[in-house]
Specification:
mainly beta; four-stranded antiparallel beta sheet; seven-stranded mixed beta sheet
Length: about 120
């Protein structure tokens, strides 16, 4: 499985971006897929995950601002990010795994397939 992120960039505080993750094969709804981010000097953290059963889980810091979704026909996962803040600045990664640990969906170490990452920078 190969994952390719797109849609990152630089925005001002309060702005919006939509990230896309294109999968090399049809894994949406068969795998757990999600978005993670890592800022310099910090650990990788779970942002939002879409379980194979359709269940969504969000990190506390993004609840109400970010929305994860999918397009099965395009084998693509999305992350709509609204009201972006400087603390959202990070490298964002798409991840997937066939094994879904629903008690730990936001645990990065549970995922075996990763994209190369894309930078999101929010200025104040």
């Amino acid at each position: 499985v190969q994952l390719q992120e797109s849609g990152g960039g630089s925005v001002q505080s309060g702005g919006s971006l939509r990230l896309s993750c294109a999968a090399s094969e049809s894994i949406v709804r068969r795998y757990c897929m999600g978005w993670f981010r890592q800022a310099p000097g910090k650990e990788r953290e779970g942002v939002a995950v879409l379980g194979a059963n359709g269940r969504t889980t969000y990190g506390d810091s993004v609840k109400g601002r970010f929305t994860i979704s999918q397009d099965n026909a395009k084998n693509t996962l999305y992350l709509q990010m609204n009201n972006l803040q400087p603390e959202d600045t990070a490298m964002y990664y798409c991840a997937a795994d066939r094994a879904c640990y629903y008690a730990e969906l936001l645990a990065a170490w549970r995922y075996n397939y990763w994209g190369q990452g894309i930078q999101v920078t929010v200025s104040s």
